[in-house]
Amino acid sequence: MPESHESVEHLLVGLVFNCLDDAERLRALALVAADPSLARQLGQLTMALGNLEREPILPPANLAQRTIAKVTRAREADSATIIRIPKAPPSARPAWNWATWRLADLVVAAGVMMVAGMVAFPAIRQAWVRQREVACQNNMRGLGVAMNDYASRHNNQYPQITSRGSSSAAGTYMVSLIEKGLLPDGHHPVCADPIPLAQPNRSDLERLYRNDLERFNRTVRAVGGSYGYSLGHINARGQLEGPRRDQGDNHPLLADKGPRTVGTGAQGNSPNHGGRGQNVLFSGGNVSFQTTRKTPDGDDIYLNNHGLPRAGISSSDRVLGAGDDHP
Protein backbone atom coordinates (compact mmCIF):
# COMPACT_ATOMS: atom_id res chain seq x y z
CA MET A 1 0.00 0.00 0.00
CA PRO A 2 1.54 3.34 -1.02
CA GLU A 3 2.36 5.87 1.70
CA SER A 4 0.06 8.89 2.02
CA HIS A 5 1.50 12.38 1.64
CA GLU A 6 0.96 13.04 5.37
CA SER A 7 2.64 9.74 6.28
CA VAL A 8 5.69 10.54 4.13
CA GLU A 9 5.99 14.01 5.67
CA HIS A 10 5.78 12.44 9.14
CA LEU A 11 8.58 10.02 8.28
CA LEU A 12 10.83 12.73 6.80
CA VAL A 13 10.43 14.99 9.85
CA GLY A 14 10.97 12.04 12.19
CA LEU A 15 14.13 11.09 10.30
CA VAL A 16 15.57 14.60 10.68
CA PHE A 17 14.81 14.70 14.43
CA ASN A 18 15.89 11.06 14.94
CA CYS A 19 12.65 10.23 16.74
CA LEU A 20 11.40 7.23 14.74
CA ASP A 21 11.30 3.69 16.00
CA ASP A 22 13.34 1.06 14.15
CA ALA A 23 10.53 -0.03 11.83
CA GLU A 24 9.60 3.53 10.86
CA ARG A 25 13.24 4.48 10.34
CA LEU A 26 13.84 1.55 7.98
CA ARG A 27 10.68 2.41 6.04
CA ALA A 28 11.74 6.07 5.78
CA LEU A 29 15.26 5.17 4.57
CA ALA A 30 13.80 2.84 1.93
CA LEU A 31 11.48 5.57 0.63
CA VAL A 32 14.32 8.13 0.42
CA ALA A 33 16.64 5.68 -1.34
CA ALA A 34 13.97 4.80 -3.93
CA ASP A 35 12.81 8.37 -4.70
CA PRO A 36 15.36 11.13 -5.48
CA SER A 37 12.69 13.81 -4.96
CA LEU A 38 12.25 12.65 -1.37
CA ALA A 39 16.02 12.73 -0.91
CA ARG A 40 16.02 16.37 -2.07
CA GLN A 41 13.12 17.22 0.26
CA LEU A 42 14.94 15.58 3.15
CA GLY A 43 18.08 17.58 2.37
CA GLN A 44 16.13 20.86 2.26
CA LEU A 45 14.35 20.00 5.51
CA THR A 46 17.62 19.06 7.22
CA MET A 47 19.25 22.32 6.12
CA ALA A 48 16.23 24.43 7.18
CA LEU A 49 15.90 22.82 10.60
CA GLY A 50 19.66 22.90 11.07
CA ASN A 51 19.43 26.69 11.17
CA LEU A 52 17.38 26.36 14.38
CA GLU A 53 20.22 24.71 16.26
CA ARG A 54 21.87 26.89 18.86
CA GLU A 55 24.68 26.46 21.30
CA PRO A 56 23.34 25.81 24.86
CA ILE A 57 23.42 28.87 27.10
CA LEU A 58 25.40 28.10 30.24
CA PRO A 59 24.50 29.86 33.53
CA PRO A 60 27.11 32.10 35.20
CA ALA A 61 29.58 30.30 37.42
CA ASN A 62 28.34 29.56 40.97
CA LEU A 63 24.95 31.17 40.26
CA ALA A 64 23.05 28.99 42.76
CA GLN A 65 25.55 29.58 45.60
CA ARG A 66 25.67 33.34 45.00
CA THR A 67 21.87 33.56 44.91
CA ILE A 68 21.50 31.65 48.21
CA ALA A 69 24.14 33.86 49.86
CA LYS A 70 22.36 37.01 48.69
CA VAL A 71 19.00 35.82 50.02
CA THR A 72 20.62 34.91 53.36
CA ARG A 73 22.18 38.38 53.70
CA ALA A 74 18.83 40.00 52.91
CA ARG A 75 17.09 37.97 55.62
CA GLU A 76 19.75 38.89 58.19
CA ALA A 77 19.45 42.60 57.42
CA ASP A 78 17.04 44.92 59.24
CA SER A 79 13.87 44.20 57.28
CA ALA A 80 12.13 47.18 58.92
CA THR A 81 14.44 49.59 57.17
CA ILE A 82 12.94 50.33 53.80
CA ILE A 83 14.53 52.82 51.48
CA ARG A 84 11.90 54.60 49.47
CA ILE A 85 13.00 56.12 46.19
CA PRO A 86 11.01 59.20 45.33
CA LYS A 87 9.15 59.05 42.07
CA ALA A 88 10.44 61.18 39.25
CA PRO A 89 8.23 64.14 38.44
CA PRO A 90 5.86 63.39 35.60
CA SER A 91 7.10 64.40 32.17
CA ALA A 92 5.47 67.25 30.43
CA ARG A 93 5.37 65.17 27.27
CA PRO A 94 2.56 62.64 26.88
CA ALA A 95 3.38 58.92 27.10
CA TRP A 96 4.44 57.28 23.86
CA ASN A 97 1.76 55.77 21.67
CA TRP A 98 1.21 55.31 17.97
CA ALA A 99 -0.91 58.42 17.84
CA THR A 100 2.08 60.58 18.81
CA TRP A 101 4.08 59.46 15.76
CA ARG A 102 4.23 61.82 12.86
CA LEU A 103 4.65 60.80 9.25
CA ALA A 104 8.25 62.02 9.34
CA ASP A 105 8.95 59.74 12.34
CA LEU A 106 7.60 56.74 10.44
CA VAL A 107 9.66 57.57 7.37
CA VAL A 108 12.85 57.86 9.44
CA ALA A 109 12.16 54.59 11.29
CA ALA A 110 11.44 52.78 8.02
CA GLY A 111 14.67 54.14 6.54
CA VAL A 112 16.69 52.96 9.53
CA MET A 113 15.14 49.48 9.31
CA MET A 114 15.78 49.30 5.56
CA VAL A 115 19.44 50.27 5.95
CA ALA A 116 19.87 47.76 8.81
CA GLY A 117 18.35 45.06 6.62
CA MET A 118 20.57 45.93 3.68
CA VAL A 119 23.65 45.68 5.90
CA ALA A 120 22.75 42.64 8.03
CA PHE A 121 20.97 40.22 5.68
CA PRO A 122 23.70 39.97 3.01
CA ALA A 123 26.30 39.47 5.75
CA ILE A 124 24.26 36.68 7.33
CA ARG A 125 23.71 34.97 3.98
CA GLN A 126 27.39 35.31 3.05
CA ALA A 127 28.40 33.70 6.35
CA TRP A 128 25.96 30.82 5.77
CA VAL A 129 27.23 30.28 2.21
CA ARG A 130 30.85 30.26 3.39
CA GLN A 131 30.02 27.79 6.18
CA ARG A 132 28.44 25.46 3.62
CA GLU A 133 31.53 25.65 1.39
CA VAL A 134 33.84 24.80 4.29
CA ALA A 135 31.63 21.91 5.46
CA CYS A 136 31.64 20.50 1.93
CA GLN A 137 35.43 20.82 1.73
CA ASN A 138 35.90 18.99 5.03
CA ASN A 139 33.64 16.19 3.86
CA MET A 140 35.60 15.92 0.61
CA ARG A 141 38.93 15.71 2.45
CA GLY A 142 37.62 12.74 4.41
CA LEU A 143 36.58 11.03 1.19
CA GLY A 144 40.01 11.82 -0.28
CA VAL A 145 41.70 10.03 2.62
CA ALA A 146 39.46 7.00 2.03
CA MET A 147 40.26 6.98 -1.70
CA ASN A 148 44.00 7.14 -1.10
CA ASP A 149 43.72 4.30 1.41
CA TYR A 150 41.90 2.36 -1.29
CA ALA A 151 44.66 3.11 -3.81
CA SER A 152 47.30 1.92 -1.33
CA ARG A 153 45.56 -1.46 -1.25
CA HIS A 154 44.97 -1.73 -5.01
CA ASN A 155 48.28 -1.04 -6.71
CA ASN A 156 47.76 2.76 -6.86
CA GLN A 157 44.35 2.43 -8.50
CA TYR A 158 41.45 4.50 -7.20
CA PRO A 159 37.94 2.94 -7.38
CA GLN A 160 37.48 2.01 -11.04
CA ILE A 161 34.44 2.69 -13.20
CA THR A 162 33.89 0.02 -15.85
CA SER A 163 32.60 0.46 -19.38
CA ARG A 164 29.61 -1.83 -18.69
CA GLY A 165 27.99 -3.78 -15.88
CA SER A 166 27.04 -2.84 -12.33
CA SER A 167 30.20 -0.71 -11.86
CA SER A 168 29.62 1.36 -14.99
CA ALA A 169 28.28 4.48 -13.20
CA ALA A 170 30.31 7.16 -11.43
CA GLY A 171 28.38 6.82 -8.16
CA THR A 172 29.60 3.26 -7.62
CA TYR A 173 32.92 4.59 -6.25
CA MET A 174 31.04 4.99 -2.94
CA VAL A 175 30.07 1.31 -2.94
CA SER A 176 33.74 0.38 -3.47
CA LEU A 177 34.79 2.46 -0.44
CA ILE A 178 32.01 1.02 1.71
CA GLU A 179 32.86 -2.56 0.69
CA LYS A 180 36.42 -2.10 1.95
CA GLY A 181 35.27 -0.44 5.18
CA LEU A 182 37.11 2.77 4.26
CA LEU A 183 34.30 5.31 4.45
CA PRO A 184 35.01 7.37 7.59
CA ASP A 185 32.29 7.82 10.21
CA GLY A 186 30.08 10.82 9.53
CA HIS A 187 31.09 11.14 5.88
CA HIS A 188 28.51 10.86 3.15
CA PRO A 189 28.05 11.66 -0.55
CA VAL A 190 25.92 14.75 0.10
CA CYS A 191 27.63 18.14 0.25
CA ALA A 192 27.49 19.46 3.83
CA ASP A 193 24.11 17.82 4.58
CA PRO A 194 24.32 14.56 6.56
CA ILE A 195 21.31 12.79 5.05
CA PRO A 196 20.97 9.13 6.08
CA LEU A 197 20.62 6.90 3.03
CA ALA A 198 20.32 3.14 2.78
CA GLN A 199 23.48 2.36 0.79
CA PRO A 200 23.14 -0.55 -1.67
CA ASN A 201 25.79 -3.26 -1.83
CA ARG A 202 27.35 -4.71 -4.98
CA SER A 203 24.80 -7.53 -5.16
CA ASP A 204 21.94 -5.01 -5.08
CA LEU A 205 23.50 -3.07 -7.96
CA GLU A 206 24.08 -6.21 -10.02
CA ARG A 207 20.47 -7.29 -9.58
CA LEU A 208 19.15 -3.84 -10.53
CA TYR A 209 21.48 -3.61 -13.53
CA ARG A 210 20.19 -6.93 -14.88
CA ASN A 211 16.49 -6.45 -14.12
CA ASP A 212 15.65 -2.74 -13.91
CA LEU A 213 18.13 -0.39 -15.61
CA GLU A 214 16.01 2.71 -14.94
CA ARG A 215 15.96 2.03 -11.21
CA PHE A 216 19.67 1.20 -11.31
CA ASN A 217 20.37 4.68 -12.70
CA ARG A 218 18.16 6.33 -10.06
CA THR A 219 19.94 4.38 -7.34
CA VAL A 220 23.50 5.21 -8.43
CA ARG A 221 22.55 8.87 -8.86
CA ALA A 222 21.37 8.91 -5.23
CA VAL A 223 24.52 7.05 -4.12
CA GLY A 224 26.71 9.59 -5.92
CA GLY A 225 24.88 12.36 -4.07
CA SER A 226 26.21 15.87 -4.53
CA TYR A 227 29.51 14.85 -6.08
CA GLY A 228 30.97 13.96 -9.46
CA TYR A 229 33.67 11.28 -9.65
CA SER A 230 36.30 10.56 -12.30
CA LEU A 231 35.01 8.60 -15.31
CA GLY A 232 38.58 7.78 -16.40
CA HIS A 233 39.83 8.06 -19.99
CA ILE A 234 40.20 5.96 -23.13
CA ASN A 235 43.81 4.86 -23.52
CA ALA A 236 45.80 4.30 -26.72
CA ARG A 237 44.45 0.72 -26.97
CA GLY A 238 40.87 1.95 -26.93
CA GLN A 239 40.30 0.66 -23.40
CA LEU A 240 38.80 2.51 -20.46
CA GLU A 241 41.43 3.36 -17.87
CA GLY A 242 40.48 4.66 -14.42
CA PRO A 243 42.30 7.25 -12.29
CA ARG A 244 45.57 6.29 -10.58
CA ARG A 245 47.43 7.86 -7.70
CA ASP A 246 50.77 7.71 -9.54
CA GLN A 247 49.47 10.05 -12.27
CA GLY A 248 50.34 13.05 -10.09
CA ASP A 249 48.82 15.12 -7.32
CA ASN A 250 47.01 17.69 -9.47
CA HIS A 251 44.43 15.52 -11.22
CA PRO A 252 40.78 16.34 -10.33
CA LEU A 253 39.34 13.25 -8.64
CA LEU A 254 36.07 14.45 -7.08
CA ALA A 255 34.05 17.68 -7.21
CA ASP A 256 30.61 19.12 -6.65
CA LYS A 257 28.66 17.60 -9.52
CA GLY A 258 28.09 19.74 -12.58
CA PRO A 259 24.80 21.03 -13.97
CA ARG A 260 22.39 18.35 -15.14
CA THR A 261 23.34 17.20 -18.62
CA VAL A 262 21.27 15.85 -21.49
CA GLY A 263 23.17 14.69 -24.58
CA THR A 264 25.84 17.33 -24.90
CA GLY A 265 26.61 18.84 -21.51
CA ALA A 266 25.07 21.90 -19.89
CA GLN A 267 27.38 24.83 -19.27
CA GLY A 268 27.98 26.71 -16.04
CA ASN A 269 29.29 25.85 -12.59
CA SER A 270 27.90 23.32 -10.14
CA PRO A 271 24.46 24.20 -8.73
CA ASN A 272 25.61 23.09 -5.24
CA HIS A 273 26.87 26.58 -4.34
CA GLY A 274 24.53 28.81 -6.31
CA GLY A 275 26.55 28.59 -9.51
CA ARG A 276 29.45 30.57 -8.00
CA GLY A 277 31.87 27.67 -8.36
CA GLN A 278 32.67 24.20 -7.07
CA ASN A 279 34.88 22.47 -4.52
CA VAL A 280 37.37 20.16 -6.24
CA LEU A 281 39.31 17.32 -4.61
CA PHE A 282 42.63 16.61 -6.30
CA SER A 283 44.45 13.28 -6.26
CA GLY A 284 47.04 14.70 -3.85
CA GLY A 285 44.29 15.13 -1.24
CA ASN A 286 43.98 18.94 -1.33
CA VAL A 287 40.57 20.58 -1.80
CA SER A 288 39.99 24.07 -3.18
CA PHE A 289 37.02 26.15 -4.28
CA GLN A 290 37.26 26.88 -8.02
CA THR A 291 35.22 29.70 -9.56
CA THR A 292 35.50 28.11 -13.01
CA ARG A 293 34.88 24.56 -14.19
CA LYS A 294 38.12 24.54 -16.18
CA THR A 295 41.57 23.56 -14.96
CA PRO A 296 44.54 25.92 -15.51
CA ASP A 297 45.36 24.07 -18.76
CA GLY A 298 41.82 24.71 -20.07
CA ASP A 299 40.38 21.22 -19.48
CA ASP A 300 36.63 21.16 -18.65
CA ILE A 301 36.15 18.91 -15.61
CA TYR A 302 32.53 18.07 -16.53
CA LEU A 303 32.84 17.41 -20.29
CA ASN A 304 35.39 15.57 -22.39
CA ASN A 305 37.11 17.14 -25.39
CA HIS A 306 34.15 16.06 -27.56
CA GLY A 307 31.81 18.11 -25.36
CA LEU A 308 30.17 15.07 -23.73
CA PRO A 309 29.79 13.98 -20.08
CA ARG A 310 31.71 10.79 -20.83
CA ALA A 311 35.20 9.38 -20.23
CA GLY A 312 38.10 11.51 -21.42
CA ILE A 313 39.55 10.84 -24.86
CA SER A 314 43.13 11.00 -23.54
CA SER A 315 45.00 10.89 -20.23
CA SER A 316 44.97 14.71 -20.03
CA ASP A 317 41.19 14.85 -20.60
CA ARG A 318 39.74 14.51 -17.06
CA VAL A 319 35.96 14.23 -16.66
CA LEU A 320 33.99 14.04 -13.39
CA GLY A 321 30.55 12.52 -13.79
CA ALA A 322 27.45 12.65 -11.58
CA GLY A 323 26.31 9.43 -9.92
CA ASP A 324 24.41 8.12 -12.94
CA ASP A 325 26.88 9.24 -15.63
CA HIS A 326 28.51 6.41 -17.59
CA PRO A 327 31.86 6.35 -19.38
Give a verbal description of the structure.
By secondary structure, the protein is α+β, with helices and mostly antiparallel strands. The chain has 2 domains: 5-40, no CATH class; 128-321, no CATH class. Helices cover 41% and strands 7% of the residues. The chain has helices at residues 5-17, 22-34, 36-50, 63-76, 103-153, 173-179, 202-211, 213-224, and strands spanning 227-230, 233-234, 240-241, 252-256, 278-282, 287-290, 320-321. The chain has a 5-stranded antiparallel β-sheet with strand order 6-5-4-1-7, with helices on one face. Strands 2-3 form a two-stranded antiparallel sheet. α7 runs antiparallel to α8 (213-224).
Number of helices: 8
Strand content: 5-15%
What would you call the structural class?
alpha+beta
Uncertain runs with pLDDT below 50, 5 residues or more?
Answer: 79-83
User: What proportion of the residues is helical, as a percent range?
Assistant: 40-55%
* Chain oligomer state: single chain
Categorize the overall geometry.
globular
Largest sheet geometry: 5 strands, antiparallel
Main sheet strand line-up = 6-5-4-1-7
Give the averaged pLDDT, no decimals. Answer: 77
| Succession of helices and strands | HHHHHHHHEEEEEEE
Q: List how many beta strands DSSP finds.
A: 7
